[in-house]
Design a protein that fits this description.
Blueprint: E1 3-4, H1 17-26, H2 32-52, E2 58-60, H3 68-75, H4 92-100, E3 110-112, E4 119-121, E5 124-125, H5 137-146, E6 152-157, H6 159-164, E7 167-168, H7 178-194, E8 199-203, H8 213-228, E9 233-237, H9 247-252, E10 257-261, H10 268-274, E11 280-286, H11 296-309, E12 317-321, H12 340-344, H13 349-365, H14 371-386, H15 393-400, H16 413-424, H17 441-451, H18 457-478, H19 495-498, E13 502-505, E14 512-515, E15 518-520, E16 524-530, H20 537-544, E17 552-556, H21 558-563, E18 566-567, H22 573-593, E19 598-602, H23 617-632, E20 640-645, H24 654-659, E21 664-667, H25 682-685, E22 689-692, H26 705-716, H27 737-761
Parallel strand pairs: 1-12, 2-6, 5-7, 6-8, 8-9, 9-10, 10-11, 11-12, 16-18, 17-19, 19-20, 20-21, 21-22
Antiparallel strand pairs: 3-4, 13-16, 14-15
Length: about 750
C-alpha cells in the first residue's frame, strides 16, 4: 500500500512556544530541566498531531533547541577547543556557546541553509578531526516516541552533506574526513536497528547542487559502507531541486528508497522507470516551501501516472512534502483575521499533512474515497483565480512601460562619488549603522496596543517621535557620521513594507524559524503589487529635521521582499519582483525629493535566491539586478544609494554585485575576520564603497575598540581607504541597549583610531 510520510515538522511549536522557552532559559528565568521538559512536551505533541492526521512515517530527531546541523556536530564530537566540552554528552552551556558565543569565545559561523531563509551553524573541523559519538540522539528520540506508543522514522543529516556543509580550520577539504566519520554513522544505525527501527530518513540535500567528481565518489563510498553494515532501511532523501544529472547516481546508491522533490522541477517518470522494483519511491508532491493549497486533483493524477509506470504500482510509493515543513508556518486555521477567500487558499504544515494523507488514501482507494477533499480543493482554486486584485490591468500597463533607461543611473559611479562627497562632507572611514535599533518590550507593547486600537494615533505618534528624537540625539553625541532613525515603528524589515503595499497579506501566527529563537512571519504575496501611499517618508523626514547630519532613508529591496515572502505561484517570480521594484522606485524618488541624501535599499536575500545549480544563475541574477536598479536608479547623482547584504559568499557573484551599481554596500565580516573582503579586494574587483561589519550582532558579546580597530586594519589590507565605511554587521533590533551603546561607542573610537593612524603616516 502507499504510505503518507512527513520529512520534518515546524520545531518552534504553536505560538512560538520553543522561542519563549529558549529566551526564558537564556534570561535565567527557567532552569535546564524546565527547558528540556518543555522541548520534550513539544516533540510529543507534534508526533501525536502528525500521527492523528494519518501520517504513517512520522519523523523524529528533526527537532532542535537551536539548529539541526549544530546538533549533528555536537553528537559527532566535532567541537572546537575553547567551548567547555571535555568529552561525553555536550552540556547546554557548551551547546549555546557554540550557537551564540560566550565569554572568551565567538559563536560558530552562520550561513543560509541552501536557498532558504533558514540559517545553520557551520561546523568547524580540524585537519585531524577525531569524531566521537557523544550520544545517539536519533536513538533517544526513537525510544522517546516509542514510550508514547508511537513509531517514528528517525532523520539524520547524511555524512556527505554534513561534511560538505562544514569547513576545515586549515582550509582543507572536509570530505577527506569521510572515512573517519563513517564508523559513527554505522554505530548510530546499528543501535537503531537493534531498537527495532525499520527505516531511517538519510538527508543528502547536496544532491540538489552541482557536485564534483570527488563528492560523487564520496557518496558512493559512504552508502556502500552503510549498506554493507546492515541496519535500518535508508530512505535517501534529496530536496530543494531536481536530481538532474545526479539521477543515475542517486538510483545506483544502495538504499531502501529514494525521496525526490517534485515541486521544483522533477523527473518522476524517469525515476519510476529507473528505480528497481522493491525499492520505495518517495514523491515530494506537496510544496514544503510555500503556503498555497495544492491542486489535489492534479497531484492525484500525477501520482497515478507514476504508479502506472512502476512494477510495484502504488504499493512502492510514499506520498510526502517536497522537504521538511520547517519552512512553513504551523496552522492556517489560526489566521482568522485573513480574508476567508485567501485563508481558504492556504495550506500551512497542518493542512499540508492533511493533503498528503488524502493523496495517499486516494492513490490507494480511488477518487471516491477523497471526494470531499477534491471538491474543496477545486473550489478553493476557482475562488482564488477570480478574486479581485489578483490581476490588475493598471499594474500590467506600468510594467509594460518600463524601459532600459529606467534601470540606469544618470552618471557613472566616479561622477556620483564626487557629487556625493561634496554634498555630504564625510570624514575618512565614515561611521553608520545598518538601520534598526533595539526593539524593546516597551516598543513592541506600544505597537501592539496601537494595532489593537487600545491607544490612539496621537499617543502612538508622540511615543515614536520621542524615541526617534532620543536616537538622533545620542547618535550625534556619540559621533556617528550618517544617522538612522532607528525603525522603532517597524516590526520586521519585510512585513512593515508588505503591510503598506497592495497585493500582500500579513499573518498573525505565520511564524517560521530563521535561526535559534529568531522567528519571522513572511508576508504572503497573493495579488498584483502596488504602492497606494508613501511608506517611510514621514518618520525619515522627522528624523532629518532633528539634525544637520545626514539621516539614511531605509528600505527593503525588491529581491529580498520577494525571497522573504511566500510568493504567489500563478505568475513568474520575476514578474512579481518587477512589480515590487516599481512600488519601491516611487518611495526612493519621494525620499530623494524630500532632501534625504543617503538611501539604503537592503538586499540581504539576493544570493539566497540563486538556483542551486550554476546553470540557472545567469538568468536569475540578470532579472534580480535589473529589479534592484529599477527600484534605485531614478535619483540624482548626489543621492547616495547604499545596500546591505548578509550571510553571502560573494566571490562567485561579484559581477552581479558590481552590476547593482550601488554607491556603497555593507556586509557581514566580523565572524570571518574580514576574510569575505578577499572577494572585494581592490577597486578593480569592486569599484565603489564598502562597509565591512566590525561587530557581530548575532552574538550578545560586545567587542572593544581595539578589536574593531584590528578588524579595520585587516580591511585596509584589502581595500582602499576611501572605500571603507565603519558599521556593525547587521541591524541592531535583536540586541539590547546595554550592548548597543558601548559597542557603537567602541566602533566610533575605532574609526577615529584609524583616522589618526592614517594622518600620522602622511
Amino acid at each position: 500500500m502507499s504510505i503518507a510520510a512527513n520529512l520534518g515538522f515546524p520545531r518552534i511549536g504553536a505560538r512560538r512556544a520553543l522561542k519563549f522557552l529558549l529566551e526564558g532559559f537564556w534570561a535565567g528565568e527557567i532552569d535546564p530541566a524546565t527547558l528540556q521538559d518543555g522541548a520534550a512536551a513539544l516533540r510529543a505533541a507534534h508526533w501525536r498531531l502528525q500521527a492523528g492526521l494519518g501520517i504513517g512515517h512520522v519523523p523524529s530527531n528533526e527537532d532542535s533547541l537551536y539548529d539541526h546541523v549544530l546538533d549533528m556536530a555536537c553528537m559527532l564530537g566535532a567541537i572546537p577547543a575553547g567551548y567547555g566540552w571535555q568529552g561525553g554528552p555536550v552540556s547546554l552551556a557548551s551547546y549555546f556557546a557554540l550557537a551564540r558565543g560566550a565569554a572568551g569565545v565567538k559563536p560558530l559561523a552562520m550561513t543560509k541553509w541552501f536557498d532558504t531563509n533558514y540559517h545553520y551553524l557551520v561546523p568547524l573541523l580540524a585537519a585531524d578531526q577525531r569524531f566521537t559519538l557523544t550520544e545517539n540522539r536519533p536513538l533517544a528520540r526513537f525510544q522517546e516516541a516509542r514510550a508514547l506508543a508511537l513509531r517514528t522514522r528517525p532523520v539524520l543529516l547524511g555524512p556527505v552533506s554534513f561534511l560538505m556543509l562544514s569547513r576545515r580550520a586549515d582550509g582543507g577539504d572536509p570530505l577527506a574526513l569521510l572515512d573517519a566519520l563513517l564508523p559513527l554513522y554505522t554505530r548510530i544505525l546499528g543501535e537503531l536497528a537493534d531498537a527495532g527501527c525499520v527505516f531511517v530518513q538519510m538527508d543528502e540535500p547536496v544532491l540538489a547542487r552541482d557536485l564534483s567528481d570527488a563528492a560523487r565518489a564520496a557518496l558512493r563510498r559512504a552508502y556502500d559502507a552503510l549498506a554493507g553494515a546492515g541496519g535500518p532501511g535508508l530512505i535517501l532523501t534529496s530536496y530543494f531541486g531536481p536530481l538532474g544529472d545526479h539521477l543515475d547516481l542517486a538510483v545506483s546508491l544502495p538504499s531502501a528508497g529514494l525521496h525526490v522533490d517534485l515541486t521544483r522541477g522533477g523527473e518522476a517518470m524517469a525515476l519510476a522507470a529507473a528505480l528497481p522494483a522493491g525499492r520505495l519511491l518517495s514523491l515530494g508532491v506537496i510544496d514544503g516551501r510555500n503556503v498555497w493549497r495544492a491542486d489535489l486533483r492534479a497531484r492525484l493524477g500525477d501520482l497515478r501516472a507514476i504508479a502506472a509506470r512502476r512494477e510495484d504500482g502504488a504499493a512502492g510509493l510514499i506520498v510526502a512534502p517536497s522537504c521538511s515543513l520547517l519552512h512553513v508556518p504551523l496552522d492556517a486555521n489560526e489566521e482568522r483575521a485573513l480574508d476567508p477567500a485567501l485563508r481558504g487558499a492556504l495550506a500551512f504544515a497542518v493542512q499540508k499533512l492533511a493533503e498528503i494523507s488524502a493523496l495517499a488514501r486516494g492513490l490507494e482507494q480511488g477518487e471516491a474515497a477523497i471526494a470531499d477533499a477534491l471538491a474543496a480543493s477545486d473550489a478553493a482554486h476557482r475562488a482564488r483565480a477570480a478574486a479581485p486584485g489578483v490581476h490588475r490591468a493598471d499594474i500590467a500597463a506600468r510594467l509594460a512601460a518600463v524601459d532600459e533607461a529606467m534601470t540606469r543611473r544618470a552618471s557613472p559611479y566616479p561622477a556620483r562619488r564626487a557629487a556625493q562627497a561634496a554634498r555630504l562632507g564625510l570624514p575618512l572611514f565614515p561611521t553608520t549603522t545598518i538601520g534598526s535599533f533595539p526593539q524593546t518590550t516597551e516598543i513592541r507593547r506600544l505597537r501592539a496596543a496601537h494595532g489593537r486600537g487600545e491607544i490612539d494615533a496621537a499617543a502612538y505618534d508622540r511615543a515614536m517621535a520621542g524615541w526617534i528624537d532620543d536616537a538622533i540625539a545620542w547618535q550625534e553625541e556619540l559621533g556617528i557620521d550618517v544617522l538612522v532613525h532607528g525603525e522603532f515603528e517597524r516590526n520586521d524589515m519585510v512585513q512593515y513594507f508588505a503591510d503598506a503595499l497592495d497585493g500582500f497579506a500579513i499573518t498573525r501566527h505565520g511564524w517560521v524559524q530563521s535561526y535559534g529563537s529568531r522567528c519571522v512571519a513572511p508576508p504572503i504575496i497573493w495579488g498584483d503589487v502596488a504602492r497606494p501611499a508613501a511608506m517611510t517618508l514621514r518618520w525619515t523626514r522627522h528624523a532629518q529635521s532633528r539634525t544637520a547630519r545626514p539621516v539614511k532613508g531605509m528600505l527593503t529591496g525588491p529581491v529580498t521582499m520577494l525571497n522573504w515572502s511566500f510568493v504567489r505561484s500563478d505568475i513568474p517570480r520575476e514578474t512579481v519582483c518587477r512589480q515590487i521594484a516599481l512600488a519601491l522606485r516611487e518611495e526612493v524618488r519621494d525620499l530623494a525629493l524630500s532632501g534625504i541624501a543617503v538611501i539604503q535599499v537592503d538586499e540581504p536575500a539576493l544570493r539566497e535566491g540563486l538556483p542551486l545549480r550554476r546553470a540557472g544563475w545567469a538568468a536569475y541574477l540578470d532579472w534580480a539586478v535589473r529589479c534592484f536598479r529599477l527600484a534605485t536608479a531614478g535619483v540624482g547623482d548626489d543621492t547616495a544609494i547604499h545596500t546591505h547584504m548578509c550571510y553571502s559568499e560573494f566571490a562567485d557573484i561579484m559581477d552581479a554585485i558590481a552590476a547593482l551599481d550601488a554607491d556603497a554596500i555593507s556586509i557581514e565580516t566580523a565572524r570571518g575576520r574580514m576574510a569575505l573582503l578577499d572577494a572585494f579586494r581592490g577597486a578593480d574587483a569592486y569599484p565603489a564603497e564598502i562597509g565591512p561589519g566590525v561587530w557581530d550582532i548575532h552574538s550578545p558579546r560586545v567587542p572593544d575598540a581595539a578589536e574593531m580597530a584590528a578588524l579595520l586594519r585587516r580591511a585596509r589590507s584589502r581595500l582602499a581607504d576611501w572605500q571603507i565605511w565603519v558599521n556593525p554587521d547587521c541591524g541592531l533590533k535583536t540586541r539590547n541597549w546595554a550592548e548597543v551603546r558601548p559597542a557603537l561607542a567602541a566602533m566610533v573610537e575605532a574609526a577615529r583610531t584609524l583616522r589618526a593612524e592614517v594622518a600620522a603616516a602622511e
